From TrEMBL:
UniProt catalytic activity: a uridine in RNA = a pseudouridine in RNA
Family: Belongs to the pseudouridine synthase RluA family.
The organism's taxonomic lineage, starting at the top: Bacteria, Pseudomonadati, Thermodesulfobacteriota, Desulfobulbia, Desulfobulbales
Protein name as it appears in the record: Pseudouridine synthase
One GO MF term attached to the UniProt entry: pseudouridine synthase activity
Gene3D superfamilies, A to Z: Pseudouridine synthase, RNA-binding S4 domain
Keyword entries, A-Z: Isomerase, RNA-binding
Length: 324
């Protein structure tokens, strides 16, 4: 019986495991378990869920870095995942791919990803609890793992972890910049160059707490690459954007700093009513393509989400004008 199939596990430390850390030995023994990542095991050790007997004497209190000796007996007790306090709700989104580890979906505009002040119900997380019937627990709780987010009014591709193994792996991929995040955006004005990049640090706005801003001091590194896909004589530029980093509102802040805010952006742009004749009543931003390595198999996966209906309609309108 494997660790993933039982709530308890016991073993005697082998000679080749002597001198190694308790958490590392447990992680090696638990290899392949979606729930028992090293960080989860460290938490269980601190909670007193692990016992070590050395020559018949129980050691304690235990720390993850405790060094084991050959012949030590290790007992692990894994509590069942706790039910989340959130109530599952039926929320509309489009699944693109799903297996035991991950769910890739298309988030519609207007949907908040995670519960927060003012959004305690009807979020994507509530919908995921309703949709995912085989969640195996993340950090001891039955909940989906949000590893990246999209703004409420941004549509497009999103990947969600369904267990600890996937959550930990995807978080590391995002930190290591192994995940490719490509967006499409419609900008105000005409970009003169065909390609370029914005390398400006981003931090919380010093006055407007709901906004982010370019912060030369105290900001975090942020890099956005852009490529023009089409220019419109009506005064707009369609661009493709590749993010190296994933700061809050990164694209919106960087494009505004470039002097070309997103069409329809009420927070970082000006006079969004000027975009209304083209059917633009939200920020024109779409998470078009997402590529990453599968957290279990390592296979490279790539997903694309067609433009949302309202964005496609506004492009069609601009192209009609262009053709006249």
């Amino acid at each position: 019986m494997t660790l993933a199939e039982t709530s308890s596990f016991a073993f005697v430390v082998a000679p080749h495991e002597a001198g190694r850390r308790l958490d590392l030995v447990l992680a090696t023994r638990a290899a392949g378990s979606a729930e028992l990542t090293r960080s989860r095991l460290q938490s269980l050790i601190r909670q007193g869920r692990v016992r070590v007997e050395s020559a018949g004497v129980e050691a304690g209190p235990l720390k993850p870095g405790m060094l084991l000796k050959a012949g030590d007996r290790v007992d692990l007790q894994v509590p069942p995942p706790e039910a989340t306090e959130l109530v599952a709700e039926e929320v509309e989104f489009t699944p693109l791919y799903e297996d035991e580890d991950i769910l890739v979906l298309v988030k519609p505009p207007g949907l908040v990803v995670h519960p927060a002040d003012g959004h305690r119900q009807g979020t994507l997380v509530h919908g995921l609890l309703h949709h995912c019937r085989n969640l195996s627990g993340i950090s001891g709780q039955l909940r989906p793992g949000i590893v990246h987010r999209l703004d409420k009014d941004t549509s497009g591709c999103l990947v969600v972890a369904k267990n600890d193994l996937a959550h930990h792996n995807l978080v590391q991929q995002f930190k290591g910049r192994e995940v490719e995040k490509t967006y499409q955006a419609l900008l105000r004005g005409i970009l003169a160059e065909d390609t370029g990049q914005v390398v400006l640090p981003i931090g919380r706005h010093p006055v407007h707490r709901k906004k982010m801003a370019v912060r030369r001091e105290g900001g975090r590194e942020a890099v956005t690459h852009w490529r023009v896909r089409q220019r419109f004589s009506a005064g707009y530029t369609l661009v493709e954007l590749l993010l190296e980093t994933g700061r809050t509102h990164q694209i919106r802040v960087h494009m505004a700093a470039l002097g070309h805010p997103l069409a329809g952006d009420r927070l970082y742009g000006r006079n969004p009513e000027k975009d209304m004749p083209y059917g633009i009543d939200r920020q024109w931003l779409h998470a078009w393509r997402l590529a990453f390595n599968h957290p279990r198999s390592g296979r490279r996966l790539t997903f694309t989400a067609p433009l949302w209906v309202d964005l496609q309609a506004s492009l069609d309108r601009l192209r009609e004008i262009e053709a006249v």
